[in-house]
Specification:
This protein has 20 helices and 19 strands. It is α+β, with helices and mostly antiparallel strands. Strands 12, 13, 14, 15, 16, 17, 18 and 19 form an 8-stranded mixed β-sheet that branches. It has a 5-stranded mixed β-sheet with strand order 9-8-7-10-11, with helices on both faces. It has a 3-stranded antiparallel β-sheet with strand order 2-1-3.
């Protein structure tokens, strides 16, 4: 790297990218003064081992100038997510959080939503998990009785559904409630979801008293039940004035950091998430938290307050970038949330470190059991699933250093075999998996487990011989007596001889194998059920030329279902928009 490049560097704020000899971005940083910050990497001896290694690998650098530090922070965040540099603190791919939404229909619907909020609906959230949203929706049904059905179902109703019969919907679809009263229920629910439960209670109380005064006793009873439900929630979560807040605490041990995020909405804790950022060894907690906040929140809806366990030097800059208020000295009513976050972070970190230690022990034990030269860091497992030969699928799960890598899982729809032939299914799945890896020049696993006995294992051995793979240790996992966990037999074939290994039920290696085998079994069954369900629920109309999605929907909306359509005459079918006499005749012949 030319010294002139450093000498002539600007003193303006911006972002710098460190490049290695292959011009790969290995570090991204922001600076108030680019010249001063970038020069510091090369003008002094660094105490931090990681920084020394970084500097040793820098071959060049690029800079991007910005007008302000805030712009630099935003750009730094985008570049880190784009390049995932090996020396930056990184998070896993950010997931999108779920919301509750209310539509703007004549009779609005309340439901679950995840993704870009491009529709002109009311959105409430974000919530930490789908589980929390579904719990909330169940509660809303009991209190407000606002519909949650799909619009197609709503439009097709001619009589109330079961939700109305069990008092979980007011059935606006068939006018069991007036438009005015339904709109009031939607308004009250919207206030409640906005965190204005006190205002909601006051409004309902006034309407209940007015209804009782006007001798509208059924309406008064309905409003009374709403009040009881809301007051019960308010008693459980009395701190309603706190607004939306995330509480964030960082714990560290053995060079590993845990960042605990508590989600507090309208004064109640509704969930939490614990994140273990990468590349944090040697960093202090304030540095980790400072890098974490923009990576975690930029691009999402940030709550109105962030309560932190650390005092950050760039607190003002981050608060401005995230458009939120950062609190690092909480008042008494917020301190208990921070204490909960601290304790939870410490416990999650302890469990994380214990799990890593256990996995190392299990891998070492497995290496000894299978007599391997190296630690089996990468392992895969195959399983076959079908119902009497129907909808046969195969799963391949991938474990790295003893932990599942779900994004690398693969499923195979097995075709052109005799139904129920597990041997042929295993042969096809193993061939498709490893012939593809060889073609793409991808790394092969150290060990492959085959869920089954010697027959399935021999199929895998035949495939590996045919494609010229010798580096993989193949292991059959045969079920024990009564298919009980802990009684499995491991089967290996070495030098043409079959070797069977039975381990004690609590052997660390067997526990790891069972984890992998159970995960492959779960994944195979899940995919098989989806395939079988799709096959069984596929409409007979889908095979008729000229009947697309719009016409199928029109037919079902008109007749109410497939059975009713089967009983309809050709003349009745022609009454549906888009169904000609020719199509109606074709439908009748197909369904009868």
């Amino acid at each position: 790297m030319a010294p002139e490049k450093l000498k002539n560097l600007t003193t303006q704020p911006g972002v710098y990218q460190m490049l290695d000899k292959q011009s790969m971005v290995i570090y991204v940083g922001k600076a108030k003064n680019l010249k001063k910050r970038v020069s510091s990497y090369f003008s002094k001896t660094h105490q931090d081992d990681k920084t020394r290694v970084l500097v040793a690998n820098i071959d060049d650098f690029d800079v991007v100038i910005t007008d302000t530090e805030t712009q630099a922070l935003l750009l730094e965040n985008e570049l880190i997510k784009q390049h995932k540099p090996r020396y930056n603190i990184l998070l896993k791919d950010a997931k999108s959080y779920p919301y509750i939404y209310i539509t703007n229909d004549k009779h609005p619907k309340v439901g679950f939503y995840r993704g870009t909020r491009h529709k002109n609906y009311q959105f409430f959230g974000p919530y930490p998990s789908a589980h929390v949203v579904r719990d909330s929706l169940n509660l809303l049904k009991k209190i407000f009785k606002v519909r949650q059905c799909a619009n197609a179902t709503y439009r097709a109703r001619s009589r109330p559904c079961l939700e109305y019969q069990i008092a979980l919907c007011s059935a606006p679809c068939v006018n069991k409630i007036s438009d005015k009263d339904y709109a009031q229920d939607v308004k009250m629910m919207s206030l409640f979801l906005s965190g204005k439960s006190v205002q909601t209670l006051d409004n309902i109380s006034q309407k209940m008293q007015a209804a009782a005064k006007n001798q509208e006793f059924e309406l008064a009873a309905h409003l009374r039940d709403q009040m009881i439900g809301l007051r019960t929630i308010q008693e459980q979560h009395s701190s309603q004035s706190m607004g939306n807040m995330d509480v964030i605490s960082v714990a560290t041990q053995e060079g590993v950091h845990a960042v605990e995020v508590l989600f507090v909405r309208s004064g109640k804790q509704i969930g939490q998430e614990c994140i273990f950022p990468k590349h944090t060894k040697g960093k202090d907690t304030t540095e980790v938290l400072s890098a974490f906040l923009p990576l975690y929140y930029l691009g999402k809806d940030t709550p109105t307050q962030l309560l932190l366990s650390e005092k950050l030097s760039d607190k003002t800059l981050i608060a401005q970038a995230l458009s939120t208020k950062i609190i690092d000295t909480p008042q008494k009513d917020k301190r208990h949330f921070l204490k909960i976050a601290d304790l939870t972070a410490q416990e999650n970190l302890k469990q994380h470190l214990a799990s890593k230690f256990t996995k190392r022990v299990q891998l070492k034990q497995l290496q000894t059991t299978l007599n391997l030269k190296t630690l089996p860091n990468t392992m895969e497992c195959f399983d076959i699933s079908h119902t009497m030969g129907e909808a046969t699928t195969a799963s391949c799960v991938v474990f790295d250093k003893g932990l599942p890598k779900i994004k690398k899982y693969r499923q195979f729809n097995i075709k052109n075999i005799t139904p129920g032939d597990d041997y042929a299914a295993m042969n096809q799945a193993v061939f498709r998996r490893y012939s593809r890896l060889l073609k793409d020049k991808k790394t092969l696993p150290d060990v492959v487990f085959i869920d089954g006995g010697l027959g399935q294992l021999n199929q895998a051995i035949m495939v590996m011989d045919s494609i010229g793979v010798e580096s993989i240790q193949l292991v059959g996992v045969a079920k024990g007596e009564g298919r009980k966990a802990g009684l499995e037999t491991l089967i290996l074939v070495k030098d043409g001889k079959t070797q069977k290994i039975n381990l004690p039920p609590h052997d660390q290696a067997l526990m790891l194998i069972n984890h992998i085998r159970d995960e492959s079994h779960r994944f195979a069954i899940k995919n098989h059920r989806q395939k079988r369900g799709k096959k069984r629920t596929t409409s007979a109309l889908e095979g008729i030329e000229g009947i697309g999605k719009a016409r199928r929907t029109a037919l079902f909306n008109h007749f109410g279902g497939l059975q009713e359509l089967k009983q309809a005459s050709v003349e009745e079918m022609q009454k549906v928009n888009g169904i000609s006499p020719t199509l109606a005749t074709k439908i009748a012949k197909t369904l009868k």
